[in-house]
Amino acid sequence: MRYRTLGGLQVSAVGLGAMPLSIEGRPDETRALATIHAALDAGVTLLDTADSYHLPGQAPGHNELLLARALATYGGDPDGVLVATKGGRGRPADGSWTVTGTAAHLKAGAEASLKRLGVEAIGLYQLHKPDPAVPFEESVGALRDLLEEGKIRLAGLSNVSSDQIHRARAILGDRLVSVQNRYSPETRDSDPELRLCAELGLAFLPWSPLGGISRSSLDGPSGQTAGARHPAFHEVARERGVSPQQVCLAWLLSLSPTVVPIPGASRPQTIRDSAGAADLVLTQEELTRLTQAARPR
Predict the structure, then answer these.
(1) Nearest alpha carbon to residue 16 among 83, 113, 91
(2) Residue-level pLDDT, tens digit, the chain, 297 residues
(3) How big is the chain by its Cα radius of gyration, in Å?
(4) Closest C-alpha to 48, from 38, 60, 39
(5) Which of 56, 173, 183, 282 makes an SS bond possible with 206, Cβ 3.0 to 4.6 Å?
(6) Residue 92 to residues 63, 85, 100, 127, 224: CA-CA distances in angstroms?
(7) CB–CB of 78/69 below 8 Å?
(8) Verdict on whether the full-model pTM lies above 0.70
């Protein structure tokens, strides 16, 4: 496993997006725990979760509690593992994803996440999505207050624009360490944010990084291939004798030294394969082919 920098910490170049372990289509707990343990065995040290990763209408925090159990029952040494959680979204019974970015809501959410994770301070706490009904500075101000109170160690943003990154930096300064936006061969709307993160030294955490290669859990059962839209990834995979998903993650890693993809997984073998992307070095010719194939259409 290779490593990258996030807020002064060394984290694995590939993380685990734990959402598929708790939402619709989730595996049973035995397999879910085995998946997290397989990630840790493979050298993954960044585990991404959120209080809203649970079945519609159920109590928040299923995924956070699952990660806490996985770390407590892990046979190896969990020291050095960074658990990143998020606050500000909800999952009512109708299955929608709500957004609530008031300072009071975010602070209460962080307190609840602290208890579920069983830690003295949350390693990385991220605003899950800006709330259009709440001033952005109010939401970011809640992160600032949580940092100053010692309840979170690092702060991040998700689903934000370049302008919002600059505005958050004006409030948090160097305490803002990461941006988590959707980015994949299929979805490259966040190219400006990726470049800005590289300029500012912020970790860029692509969520749903396998779009166009595998289906996102947000779009239906994860793991189903959709490679016809980006056949170059499958061609390179066949030539290398690896999976197209691993080629995709290696391509993402090549885009910037600040990129840390967080692919989802619901089976041990899936995260083992994803972790292998950290050691897959693509040639310049392969990277050119893949970048051309992933070019926005």
Answers:
(1) 83
(2) 999 999 999 999 999 999 999 999 999 999 999 999 999 999 999 999 999 999 999 999 999 999 999 999 999 999 999 999 999 999 999 999 999 999 999 999 999 999 999 999 999 999 999 999 999 999 999 999 999 999 999 999 999 999 999 999 999 999 999 999 999 999 999 999 999 999 999 999 999 999 989 765 555 554 445 445 789 999 999 999 999 999 999 999 999 999 999 999 999 999 999 999 999 999 999 999 999 998 765
(3) 18
(4) 39
(5) 183
(6) 16, 19, 12, 19, 26
(7) no
(8) yes
Per residue, the 3-state secondary structure of the chain, as one string, reads CCEEEECCEEEECCCEECHHHCCCCCCCHHHHHHHHHHHHHCCCCEEECCCCCCCCCCCCCHHHHHHHHHHHHCCCCCCCCEEEEEECEECCCCCCCEECCCHHHHHHHHHHHHHHHCCCCEEEEEECCCCCCCCHHHHHHHHHHHHHCCCEEEEEEECCCHHHHHHHHHHHHHHEEEEECECCCCCCCCHHHHHHHHHHCCEECCECCCCCCECCHHHCCCCCECHHHCHHHHHHHHHHCCCHHHHHHHHHHHHCCCECCCCECCCHHHHHHHHHHHHCCCCHHHHHHHHHHCCCC
Single-letter residue type at 155: A
Examine the residue annotation and report whether 53 is marked as an active-site residue of this protein.
Answer: yes
Round to the nearest angstrom and report the end-to-end CA distance of the chain.
33
- C-alpha 49/C-alpha 35 separation (Å) is 14
Q: Which of 3, 53, 74, 125 is catalytic?
A: 53
Question: Strands 46-48, 82-87: parallel, antiparallel or unpaired by DSSP?
Answer: parallel
| Residue of 145, 194, 149 lying closest to 171 (CA atoms) | 145
Alpha-carbon distance of 207 to 180, in angstroms, equals: 6
